[in-house]
Each structure stands twice: as C-alpha cells, then as structure tokens.
Structures
1.
Amino acid sequence: MPAITADTLTLPRLPDLPESATAWRGVRRIVRAQKFLEGEGFQVRRPFPGVDLSMADPFLLLDHMGAVEYAPGEAKGAPWHPHRGFETVTYMIDGEMRHTDSIGGGGVITNGATQWMTAGSGILHNEMPTQEMVTKGGLFHGVQLWVNLPRSLKMAQPRYQDIEARDARLLSSDDGGALVRLIAGELDGHQGPGSTYTPITYLHATVNPGARLTMPWAADFNAMVYVISGRGTVGAERRPLDEGHLAVFGAGEALTMRAADTQPSASPNWEILVLGGRPIDEPVARYGPFVMNTRDEIVQAFEDYQAGRLGQIPAAHRSAADEELPT
C-alpha cells in the first residue's frame, strides 16, 4: 500500500486520552458495504447511501474501488458525465487515474494523492485509467467520497484541488502505533490541506496490529469509520469492524479504536478511513449526478445540462457517446 508512509516516532502525536474521564462516542450502527457497478463496469463497495441519510450528513456517498489487480486491457473508468450541487473527493491508495474536466482542471491521481472537485453550479468531467494502466494493467485501489454543499453554496463556482500525497498532514497516535494522514479538516489543532466549503474532517489511518488509536472529535460533528482492509474494533465497547464495514458513532467528544492482534495475510495492518462533519440539515433531492434541495432544482439541472450550461467537453475528448447522459 504505497499511500505515503513515515516514521511515526518523528511525527506530532495525538493526545493520550484517559479511559475513564473521556466522553467516548458509542457505536450506533455497523453497516456492510454493498457491491455496485459504476462507469464502464468497474465494481465498487458502497456503505452509504444506505444508512439513514441524517446519520451520514454532510456526506452523500462513499465508494470503495478495489483493491483489484487489472490484467492488460481490463482497466475501466467513468467517461464524461455532469455534476451539480456537491463535491467529489477521490483518494487514490494504489494505482493511478486520470481526471479531466470542463474548466481545465485535472491530472493524474496516484499513490496517496487526492483530487478534490467542487461541482457547484455545474461541471463535466471524466475519470479514466491512464494509458499505462490500460496497457500494462496493475493494482488499482481508491476511494471516492461525495460531500454535500449547503443551499447557499450549491451554485458556487466550480473549482479543482490537486492534493499530492506529500501534502497530507502526517500525525501519529500517542504511542507511535498508528500513522494518520489528515487529508482535510482539523484534528487536535492540526489542519489538513484540503480546502472545504462544508466543515468536515477526513483522514486515513494505518494502525499496527494490536495498536490503539484515539483522537478528540468535534462534538458538533458526526463520526464514521470505514475499513479499507484488515480488522479491528471500534468504540469503548470494542465492536468488531472488518474490511468493507462502516461504523456510525453516536454523540461524544472522542473516538477510540484498536487493530486486532493478528491481521489477514493480505493486509499486514488495519487500514481505516475516519470521517465526519457538521450536518447541513437541509432537504436533499438527488438524482444520478445531481444533488440539490428540491425536485424542481433537479429538473433545472437536467435542462441546464442538455442546454450546455454545465460546460462543454473539450473538443479533443468529444465523441458521439458523450452526448448521452449517464443514468
């Protein structure tokens, strides 16, 4: 797993939170991700939507892509499609993907990098394997997160952020047994590189077998942990949490989790995403690539897309198939 690594003994450490005097968040629900086909037919595991949307707010979707070893000619992507009303955050752990959009943003996302696209008022983009990945094949593993925008920012100007692996804020657990890569938001006074419209915290942690990871968590944020690989337990009640499962936490001011003493042979450590944010608490109307507040706004988004007001596919990338709106 080539997402950026570091010697945890040299990094700033998260605090050692006392067991008895800490308001630990309990586990409200554990969800097993369901499998779906996306784009040109690549498989994703999706833990939400599926949980009560109010429990995930301000997040809309989490797609776990891979890990899969593509043979030459097998790699697939998501051809040109529109978005409006939210942000897509693509975090590549292994392999590479090329992003292109209608406002000139994009590039290759690879090995620990994050591509953050604010669709806002509307944008067209594609997410495709690089030519090298198509030709040679290789390991592909990543995560895409959809972050909602409040009504006041649904029509914000589209923008693109390219967050390289080296940009992530690196932290350590109090005993050095876990490496934390803070991608966005604030954690114990440390700030991630991602610029967010919606207040969130988003991180990837590698927890050594048997190691414990604790962290303070904003009381007005919700909190979730998703397992990329390996196994462990979450909450003071030590609920088991294995690969492809999501834990949704209740109220409190801190999170605690622990990697199992032994890990599967394919995963030497427990790899997890920890994410949460301040709920927007507004009506959500969603259909395919559009997420707005009302059905009328969804209809308007379709009309704007069909009229070309969400942008144009660059001429060098245009084909007859791109005239069809994905479902």
Note: The helical segments are 53-56, 131-136, 295-306.
2.
Amino acid sequence: MTVSPTSRIAADLLPEALEPIVRQRVRGAGQAEIENWRPAAQGFSTETYLFDLVGVDDGDDDSVGLVFRRPPERPVLPDFDLRRQYLTMDRLRTSDVPVPTMRWIDAHGTDLGTPYFVMDRIDDTVTVSDMPPYHQAGIFADADAAGRAELWNGCVDVIASLRAVDPVARRLGFLDLRVFGSSAPQRLAGFLRHAVGWASGSTAPRQEFIDALDWLDGHLYEPEYVGLCWGDSRMSNVLYSKEFDVVAALDWEIAYLGDPAGDLAWMLTTDWISSPFPDHARAPGTPSTEETLDRYRRRTGLRLDHMRFAHVTAALLLAVPLLRLNEILDLGDVDLAEICIERLDHVFGDGLV
C-alpha cells in the first residue's frame, strides 16, 4: 500500500498499512502478520489500538503484543503533540516510575500519513473503568475495603515516585510550560486560560471558568518544589496485577513540569466526579482526602501547602476535553463541562485546601 504523507488512513485499513512496517521494525518479524486488531476500551485524547504480531521468530514466544497510538482526528487537547508522550515514557524507562516499553515513533507521519508510535502491550493486568464509574462497577466496586485501599494507594504511590525523577537528568525540559509565564503556577494558570479559550471555540467561556482563571492569577505562589507531573493521574490509567500491585502507569499526554500537588488534585477531582453516590461519597475503604495527602507527604517530604490552587487547576484542566467533547459529540443542550463548575463550587464553597 502506498501512503501519501498528507492522508489519514482509515482505522480499518491501518493493519494492512502497518504490517510491512512492523516486519521491518521488530526483530524476527520478517514474515509475521498482524492479528486481533481492536480499539482500546477507553480514551478520547489519543486514538489507540491493540494488536498481536504473530509469527515472530525471536526466542520462545512467536507472538508479540503491541499497542498503536496516533493523534485523534478531532483533538480534545490543545497543541496536541504525540512526541511529548512518547518521549516522556521513553525517558522514564529506567526510572522507578513503571511505564510501558516504547518501540518506535514516526513523529512526522511519513509512514502512515499521521504521526504514530508503537509500544509493548502489557497483558495479564486489570484496571478500573471510568464508565461505568469504578465506585459502582468493576474491580474497585467488587473489591473489599482493603482491596480498594490497595488500588487507591498504588496510584498515590506512582504519583509519589515522580518526586525522585530529575527532569534535567531525564531530559524532560520540553514539558516546561515556559511560554505561559515565569513561575510554575503562573505557567499552568496561563496554559489553562489558553486551553479553556481554545476548547470553548467561537463561544465565550462560561463566567464561572473565567472567575476561576482570574482567581488563579490572584493567588500565584512560589512552589516548594517543581518536578514532573503525570497530568492524567488516576486509577484508570494504572495497570495492576491481579493481586492489585502496580504494573504500569499509562497516558502521559498532558504531562508537564510543575507543582506535584496538581497530580493529587487531579486524582481527587476525577474520583469525586466519578462517584455515583450522594454528595459524591466514596465507596467504603477508599482512603480519605487527608489520608491520601498524608501518604504522599510521608513518601516525599513535601508539605502540599497550596492544594486549593491545585484543586482549581484540576477542575479547569478537566473542563478542557469536556468542552471539546460537547462539540464533537453534538450533545445539544447537554453540557459535559457542567460537572467541572460543580466541582469548582465544591472547592470554593467547602473550603478545600
């Protein structure tokens, strides 16, 4: 198949186009074939497919499980750059942060008309789901109180493990949001103003979002520590063993350099939004907010003095893809981002710090 570098290959034609490429890229795969091509179960931010490469002549196993990722046709995040997430995971591969093994990237779209990368698939794992909410169905809901705490704390410990990552030594400076300000909090606030405006399209952002952005500008601070932030730090982005041990952390599309409080606030915010119970209560056994922050403090030595700022940024960051999905899914009068305004009301009204 001949591919124009400006064309986007239809999803059902990707296996045929990719097969000769993987035969060249994977050792012992000269005669291998792609089988079991299927879309990943969830995720709007990056188009993702799982597949088996069968007939590999390399060692004992003649089949290799791989993952293919490319930019979505209609992005839900501004300035989408597939290379950022690839490099982030690739440069963490020898760290204590568990990530999949990267195979290769075509950052210019030469092979398939769009950028893409391929990484190893990690099998024999479990994870929680976003839909239906994990408090209601799936391994988290089905676990006992101790199991829920183990799943939750495993994600917290991944976030804590980022404290040991040296962004300079790992060559992660490309994640710095320096174009948006002079300090890490100002840069994140500036990026969010840009992102909310982008996601709102031709419609002016709702006043509640503008007020929250203005609040951020009026509450900038000097962070205790600036380091790698995962960005999408939630249990549904963690692969666990069947014994609930952490195996890998996925989805680094919105990784950035900033105050690590942002990752904890994101986990707490997405959990609050996921809960189907009255007042967004958690299922029994789920550690509380204070227990979560205390666990992180013990593992990192950081104080987390500016959690309200982090909670506001998390609500705004989540609003960005939801605002975009409003348009992409054409939901009429339904506003997916309304839940983010409810979260902002909760942050300010209940005095979360």
Note: Confidence is low (pLDDT under 50) at residues 1-5.
3.
Amino acid sequence: MTAGSLAKSLTIRDVARHAGVSVSTVSRVINGKKVRPELETSVRQVLTDLNFRPSAVARSMVRGTTQTVGVLVEDISSAYYAELIKGIESVLERTGHHPLFKSSHWSTVLEEEALKVFLDHNVDAIIVVGGFIPEPRLRELAVRLPLVVAGRSGLSLDVPTLTLDQRGGAERATRHLIELGHREIVHICGRMTQEDAVGRLQGYRDAMRDAGLEVRPEWILPGDFLETSAYRAMLGFVELNLPFTAVFAANDQMALGANLALHRKGLRVPDDVSLIGYDDLPMSAYSLPPLTTIRQPAQQVGEAAAHAAHDLMTGKTPRFPTFELRLVLRESTRALRR
C-alpha cells in the first residue's frame, strides 16, 4: 500500500489512537477550536506524521457548511461568461469558498438538473446568472439558502438582484452610429428568449425612433450571441443587395462574426460599413480593426455577485455598486462619407 492510499484510509479515530487523545479532541483541533496547547501540539504532530487530510464531507458535517457556492450560467464557454466567472472566482477564493459551476445552455431542463446538483452537494449559496428559472422556483430556493440573481429584472423576490441597463446601453450604441451620420443601420439580435437580447433590440428601436428614422424589418437579423450565427446572417443580408451603412451587433462575438462576413463579401470596416458591438470583451481591442463597443463590466459583475453571496452567508446586507455601460471608441466606426 502506498503512502497516498494509506493516508486516504486513515480515519479520525486512527489519529486519536496515535495521539493518545479522544476523537472529540482531534475534531476540535482539525476545526480550529480551542484545546489545551500540549494536546494541540501532540495532535498536529500526529496529523503531520500520518499525512492525514480530513475529508471535505467530514469537515462539512462538523461546520454545518460545505464551503461551496453553486454558480449557474448559460454557457461557461462564452467569452462574456468567462470574464464573469473570473470575477466570481477571484472573490470566493479569498473567502475560502469554492465555486461549483454549471451551464444551462439555454435549457430549462438543464437548469433544473443543475439546481438539483447544487442541492445534492449542500452548497452554502447559489448564484444564478440569467436563464429561465421560474420565479416560484427561485423563491423556493431563496427560502432554503442564500440566493443571488444577476441578469434578471422584474422579479418580485426578496433576494439580491443585479441588473444592468441593457436597453440604455443599446440605445447609446445605436445613437453613436446615428451621430456619425448613419441612417441605414442593421441590428443583429441575440436570442429573443433572453432578456438581454430583448433589451438591446428595444434600445436600438428607441434610438432610431428618437432620431425620426425608420426601422425596416429586413434590418433586424436573427442571431444567438455566437459568432457563427452573425456570420451567416450577415452573409445572407449582403447577398440581398439592400442598402446599409452600419451594423450594431448585440454582442462582441457576433460583431466579430459579422466582420468576417463583411470581409468575405469585399466590404471594409469601417470604410464601407461601420460596426459596433456590445460587452467590450478583452479580444475586441485586438480585432482588425479594433472594435468600437459598449463596455459591460463582466468581471466586476461577477465580483459583485460573489460579494453579495458571501454577505448573505455571513448575515450581512448586500449592496451592489452602480455599473455604467459606456461607449468605448475604437476603429470600427467612422463618420458616414457623403
């Protein structure tokens, strides 16, 4: 038997026997509770000699916590969610908690499966980002354990809820193109089942209406927030030979897909078509040309959600900072040439 397998087979009773103390004394030492100094020294020496590592399950039974937080997002592989996850991890690791991440992939079935996994693992709190979990189910979760919701608005829940002004951000993006002289502006939507996509489409419509501009149905292209959908939508639109001078994509990933489609069709950004995205992902500053976009502070949103979860777990009242969605000017937009 190897030293590693021996360490795994040891129990707290073995430690107590080697140290000549009771099981309860060993438990108190492991969990940082006060015992006589000479007993603590003896127990810690045995723990070192035997290379004993108490299981997480055993510690959780003593502490009443698992030091884990369930985090449900729509797509872990998404560049936006990767930034948000980075923020959650950076906060939780400083609190001694470990995130348990699950993706729903925009599926209500997978959302419920993820929640069951979290509850089966006795997580200490849950962070839900976006998604479609019904309000009664969220309310049920909030009764059982600390719950933080991000990216959902209009909920009548007594839980910390973090939302950003997606409609206002999209209005700002579209207004930027209008101020540059553009009047024929295409919008590539996200999934219309998602609140963010609906808000951004509304913001586009708001800006066009306020400027007295028509929104033609053919200017609104379907997408799903992924590069491929925008690439295909943009290719199909260009092939219709309809006039347009600018494109507002509902996120940076789709803006990059649209950019490639325009390139394939011989259209230059921004000389022939101005292009603006949304999110300000790290890669957007390094695209060709660097992408003008709306900065949505994904990492800071993740940090705020994690802080709120920790506050709830420690009996504090969470307070969210105010997040500004601001225009980031780069080289993919320019004034319309008359």
Note: The chain has three domains: 3-63, 68-164+298-321, 166-295.
4.
Amino acid sequence: MGAIRLDIVKKGGENLDYIKYLQKNISTVLDYTQTHFSLVLWAVGISLLLWIPLGMVITKNEKWANRVIGIANTIFCIPSLSLFAILITVPFLGLGRRSALVALVLYAMMPLVRNVYQGIKAVDKNVIEAAKGMGMSSWQILWEIELPLAAPVIFAGFRITVVMTTGIAAIATYIGERNLGRLIAEGLTRFNVEMIVVGALLIAIMAIAMDSILGKFEKRIVPRGLRVRRG
C-alpha cells in the first residue's frame, strides 16, 4: 500500500515538473508553437493548390495517372530526414523554411492526389452515363457530379494530410526550423524528459485539434450518407 502511495506521489511530482517547465519557458514554447502551426498551414495550403487540381486532371488519362501516383508513392517512401537532407543541398532552398515547405508539400502529394483520383473514379458509372445522355460535357460532369460525390474521399485525404504534415514538420528542426520539434531534439540531446514530453504532447494536441475541427467542418459540408467511415 505504501509503495502505491509513493508511486502516486512520484507521478504527481513528475506532472508538476512538466507544468513548471512549461510555465518557465512559456514564451519560447508559444513561439515554437506559432512557427510550427505556420509551417503546417503554408504546407497544407500549397499542397491543396497543387495536388487537388493534379488529381482531377489525371482522372482523364489512365496512363498519366499511373505515372503520377507512382511518383507520389515513391516520394512518400523516402525517409523524411533523408528528404530534408537532400533538399538543403539545392542552392535556392538551403537550410530553413523553403526546404521544409518543399519536403512537406512533396509528402502531401500521395494522400491528396490518390484520394482525389480514387474518389472521382469511384463515382457510379451509371450516373456519369446519365449525365452524358443529358448532353453534359466531361468537365461539366467533373465539376457538377464527380467532385461533389467524391468529396468525402477527398476530404479524408485532406484530414490525413493535415495530421501527417503536423507530425513530419517536427523533423524540420534538423534543417534549421525553430518549431516544436526543437524541444524534442534538444530534449534528447540534454536528456531532458520535460522538454521531450512537452514538445511531443503539443504536437499531438495540435494534430488532434486540427483533425477535430476538420471533422466538424466535414459534417457541415458532406451529407451523412456520403461520409467516409474512419476507424
């Protein structure tokens, strides 16, 4: 019984250590959090502008679709630290945010392009044939029928991209980004458990919070019958 009480007291003390560390370094933590969120926001925004239109275009050509999705899958298989290291050797990128943005945008290619392509391709062919019979062009069918019906799958890819980007962004600290990943990296170097736990928890909270917000937004714009079930 005494051992259990001692263990509870010890754990309570550890929690206090995390809180004390957070209070003592609140300005630095807030600065890293803002930088981390900014990097994720820019990366996701650029990715949406690039990869959603690309996913739409390749639905018109199966040959190019296989090539593009193959490239996306290959990039996604590259270890993140290796990709960051490769990009910093490019003269106009170098250390810092440019390389981090390019890497994150490249990683976002696979979930976004694939989900847009698969979502549109999964639309019932009978619906498409009926639209053609009404005299609609291929692009009218894409915008007015295929995209709305593919919206749940596309949105699922969007949510995956946001969560994935939030996590991978932490690794950008090794190429000069001053974000929450720096707390983890410096904590490992200094054997400082408080830094590691605070950094990891804040990244997890950020990812969960953004996914929850997107989930609520999805409920507003996607009809219940069309939503993709998430395990």
Note: Confidence is low (pLDDT under 50) at residues 1-13.
